[in-house]
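Regression test attached.
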Amino acid sequence: MNKTRIRVLVGKPGLDGHDRGAKVIARMLRDAGMEVIYSGLHQTPEQIVEAAIQEDVDLIGVSVLSGAHMTIFPRIKELLKEQNAEDILLMGGGTIPEEDIVSLIEAGHAEALFTPGATSTEIVSWIKSKLESSKEDVV
Amino acid sequence: MSENFLRWKAKYDAQRERKGPFFTVSSVPIDPLYGPGNAAEIDYERDLGNPGEYPYTRGVRPNMYRGRLWTMRMFAGFATAVESNERYKYLLSQGQTGLSVAFDMPTIMGYDSDHPRAYGEVGRVGVAIDSLQDMEILFQDISLDKVSTSMTINAPASIIWSMYVVAAEKQGIPAHKLTGTIQNDILKEYIAQKSWIFPPDPSMRLITDIFGFAKENVPKWNTISISGYHIREAGATALQELAFTLADGFAYVEAGIKAGLDVDDFAPRLSFFFNSHTDFFEEIAKYRAARRIWARHMKEKYGAKKEESLLMRFHTQTAGCSLTGPQPENNIVRTAYQAMAAVLGGTQSLHTNSMDEVLALPSEKAVQIALRTQQVLAYETGVVNTIDPLAGSYFVETFTNQMEEGAEEYFRKIDELGGVLGAIQENFFQQEIADAAYRYQQEIESKDRIIVGINDFINEEKDKIDLLKIDPEVERAQVNRVKALKQSRDNIRVQTTLDDLKVAAQGSDNLIPKIMDAVRAYATEGEMIAVLKEIFGEYREQAVF
């Protein structure tokens, strides 16, 4: 059976340019065998969702260090819904306080959020647990 | 190698060495022992010099901290000008000796608070400044001839600085009395921090316009803070931080000379900004090497004659990227070591990070501990009693030399790529930094590098600390303020000044007086940036990872 590779869009929404995390994650996922597209900087949620659909990704991962996470995650989810692309998962990382993580996850504004110090093992195994079973069905 | 050294080496090799690796935070391997053999080439007069004497390895002043302590300058700013003004007055009342303004992302990127792209970001990572009105509020009841103010602003530096100078004018304080610093370092934005607006050429023009205007009108102002801080935060090693920052510095010197300025007219106002990471001796070697390289190049390559042109004066901030989310109180300890390295390296001013900055903007309590860390360092540890106490250490001098040699090697590579702008276009810096950041992360994951609380010594329970929250109402209040301003001001005057600015941008005259006219008319930052974008265009990067 030929397994399709997991496709990920790593996005950097908002005006902030601190891209160290986004780039390290992008490379980490690539090394883990995924196909990674990096959006580049200063993207609007609209641009990210459009790219995700165009590139037919399984997952969007966004890095937010600007404190704007409470508006960015809900907005991306809302746009995915509008575009009938709710099957695309959304994960994120950055300087996000625990309290906000809980409320974003509970409200369904993201599937998983990671904070500084998260390891690639943690992130990769989360992605695989979510996506590998569904991938095997697609032949 | 001397017989003496070999004798010791034999004994060392006969004993067990614990599992290393023995390398710095930048992955530089370190020998078990340094001795006279390592530092044999050092000539005191040529390579060190006394403090305040060429090549300034030991410090830029003859008396250093015996004369005056470093400026304790905590970077702060959040919400709107009203809240930040209160924080500044609090910090000044706590014994802080200089102000340092953090702006929010829309201000940094040249958008007004009511622009759609500003949505959700107003007042989040710094203070929102849209017009002269906000700048006046920001410094209300703070006399601008009594404080020195550092402003972390780059792409729109010409506009924000003009607002500051005009706000002082409104307080009745003439420009020549103002002291402070604007970051104004666009090259490191293309390289690392990525908050650019215009392409390189017009950006460099705005910078040299500031140099020229300040020389005539605001002579005590540091017109640029050439920054390694962000390069390091993006993942660079200590050596890369040193080399890329100095290369940027030389690029500004060359731009100033090319714009027709005499090197000695602007070089004395160039200042620097470095990171201080946790690897103690590596940081100290970096600062000492930086002063020596700068002095040597300024004198020998650029022909500077004035002593002040040779002096590398710098601000330091402890490493935000070294802080950990888990067990955040440990960050107080990291910051304290980093602060000591900066002081032993001879910094002129210092910001110590608060323990909670990895999670949010700092709370007042966390900021106070960070400031107290500097005060303990200054008044209790005794490291300030004698100047450059590590000089002559076999290890520190060897490491300082190694830093200088490594930097020269990088300068050659950058030259081969056509200088800093050429190297940016080739993605040279960006790739070097991304590679170093990735290597560092891999070292942590493989546990070759231990970070307390991250990959060892982990607490199962999550620590809870109180974090500062920005009320979402802040954004609405600021949006309303700028909208109201746009209604109430003399819009004909605004339009005239913006038209004048546009015409001037097409020519080659110094733009600062035109920007100041628009500022006086209460034109907003976003309006001025929009006019300049029409003429200058916008920068786009080809991202690499």
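Expected vs. actual: identical. The first strand of chain A starts at residue 7 and ends at 11.
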